[in-house]
Amino acid sequence: MSNAKVTENDYLFLSAALRARETRMLGRERIERMLEAEAFSDAARILTDCGYADMSDMGAEELEVALSARRAELFNELGRIAPEQQLIDAFRLKYDYHNAKALIKAERSNADTDHLLSESGRVSPEKMKEAFNNDDYRDLPPALAEAIKEAAGILARTGNPQLADFSMDKAYFAELLSLAEGLSSSFLRDYVKLQIDTANLRAAVRTLRMGRGENFLKTALIPGGNVKPDGLAAAAAAGEGIGRLFSSTPLAEAAVIGEEATKGGSLTEFELSCDNAAMKFIKRAKSKSFGSELVVAYLAAIENEITSARMILTGKLSGINPELIRERLRETYA
Question: pTM (2 decimals)?
Answer without folding.
Answer: 0.93
